[in-house]
């Protein structure tokens, strides 16, 4: 489940919403419980996303030893979990270190409705059914088929389990303890969200967005780090996957002409952005963009770009003629004029 999306208890991401019970009232009650009288637990203090970094670093980091084979399987399972997309490399490795293997037998109950939340679970293999007591009947409300994750709601809201999850045919899960989940997933993501919001306030094209719209953009952004000289966008590539904001570091734009001669067009630093031209025009990438030194970018996938940046597209489209002029100048070996942070691939 991606950060910023509506939280649905024990819900597989691809499940049909019509088959899922309503949970808005449940979430409202959980928020009220947190506000007026949170249930006490050994981890209750861990829910403050504003806790100082020094205190965060002082917390014990849990490490469960794994073989290389186990870690490789774990990485493969976790790469499918959208909840982890906003973690940086160090945070992701801490999560991997803390997770432990949980083998299920057919019929095992992994979590039980009403119990305290102890772990978050990532499915490596197996089928799992989700049950909830509704009007006195224990009803099946969802199922997982060899992928997905569950158990986050009780950890996020320090609340009882909202449903029961049982193994159908046995399988393998990877579990993450409450302490690590809160310290990294909840708190670190909250800090990263605020950082993104502050950054986006200073991006010129986003000045047309309302504050709540920028918040949605911040929720949808994924971090990506690139080493020195790493190609981020390749000229001619037809795979139009991401739109990029430069958050730290520097990128350079290089055009390769018909004679395979490479010509640098410009460079961008923090506050610049690129990748929108190909998405707007639905054409191959116009230039190659690579990192200069270690560079960190915030990225929006194509769907998020289309959904969230609609109000900014008119401004972006105005730059199309400028892009064409820059490319024409470079191709004709005329020096391109210095460009603003708005000009990009």
Automatic annotation (TrEMBL):
From which domain of life does this come? Eukaryota
Residues recorded as binding 3',5'-cyclic AMP 1, renumbered to this chain, are 152, 161
According to the record, the residues making up region (Disordered) are: 1-66
Give a single Pfam family match. cNMP_binding
Ranges for domain Cyclic nucleotide-binding come to 83-202, 205-326
Keyword terms of this UniProt record: cAMP, cAMP-binding, Nucleotide-binding, Phosphoprotein, Repeat
- SMART domains, per database record: cNMP
Q: Which segments show compositional bias classed as Basic and acidic residues?
A: 26-35
Q: Name one GO cellular component term.
A: cytosol
Where composition is biased (Acidic residues), the residues are: 11-25, 50-59
Q: Which residues bind 3',5'-cyclic AMP 2?
A: 276, 285
Q: Which CDD domains match?
A: CAP_ED (cd00038)
Gene Ontology MF: a single term: cAMP-dependent protein kinase inhibitor activity
Concerning Gene3D superfamilies, the annotation shows:
Jelly Rolls
Q: What does this protein do?
A: Regulatory subunit of the cAMP-dependent protein kinases involved in cAMP signaling in cells. Type II regulatory chains mediate membrane association by binding to anchoring proteins, including the MAP2 kinase.
Q: Which family does it belong to?
A: Belongs to the cAMP-dependent kinase regulatory chain family.
Q: Which PANTHER family match?
A: CAMP-DEPENDENT PROTEIN KINASE REGULATORY CHAIN, CAMP-DEPENDENT PROTEIN KINASE TYPE I REGULATORY SUBUNIT-RELATED
This protein is called: cAMP-dependent protein kinase type II regulatory subunit
């Amino acid at each position: 489940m991606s950060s910023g999306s509506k939280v649905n208890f024990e819900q597989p991401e691809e499940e049909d919403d019509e088959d899922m019970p309503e949970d808005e009232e449940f979430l409202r009650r959980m928020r009220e419980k947190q506000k007026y009288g949170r249930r006490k637990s050994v981890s209750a203090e861990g829910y403050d996303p504003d806790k100082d970094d020094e205190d965060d670093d002082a917390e014990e980091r849990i490490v469960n030893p794994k073989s290389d084979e186990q870690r490789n399987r774990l990485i493969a399972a976790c790469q499918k979990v959208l909840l982890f997309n906003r973690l940086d490399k160090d945070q992701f490795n801490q999560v991997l270190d803390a997770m432990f293997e949980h083998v299920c037998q057919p019929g095992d109950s992994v979590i039980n409705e009403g119990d305290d939340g102890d772990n978050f679970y990532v499915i490596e293999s197996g089928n799992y059914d989700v049950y909830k007591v509704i009007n006195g009947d224990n009803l099946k409300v969802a199922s997982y088929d060899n992928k997905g994750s569950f158990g986050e709601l009780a950890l996020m809201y320090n609340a009882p389990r909202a449903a029961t999850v049982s193994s159908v045919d046995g399988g393998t899960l990877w579990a993450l303890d409450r302490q690590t989940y809160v310290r990294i997933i909840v708190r670190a993501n909250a800090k990263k969200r605020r950082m993104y919001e502050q950054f986006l306030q200073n991006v010129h094209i986003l000045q047309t967005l309302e504050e709540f719209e920028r918040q949605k953009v911040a929720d949808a952004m994924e971090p990506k780090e690139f080493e020195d000289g790493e190609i981020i966008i390749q000229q001619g590539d037809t795979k139009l996957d991401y739109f990029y904001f430069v958050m730290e570091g520097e990128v350079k734009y290089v055009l390769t002409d018909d004679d395979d001669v490479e010509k640098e067009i410009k460079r961008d630093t923090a506050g610049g952005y690129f990748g929108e031209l190909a998405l707007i025009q639905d054409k191959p990438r116009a230039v190659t963009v690579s990192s200069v030194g270690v560079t960190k970018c915030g990225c929006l996938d194509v769907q998020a770009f289309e959904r969230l940046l609609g109000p900014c597209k008119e401004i972006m489209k105005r730059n199309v003629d400028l892009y064409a002029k820059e490319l024409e100048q470079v191709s004709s070996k005329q020096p391109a004029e210095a460009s603003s942070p708005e000009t990009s691939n």
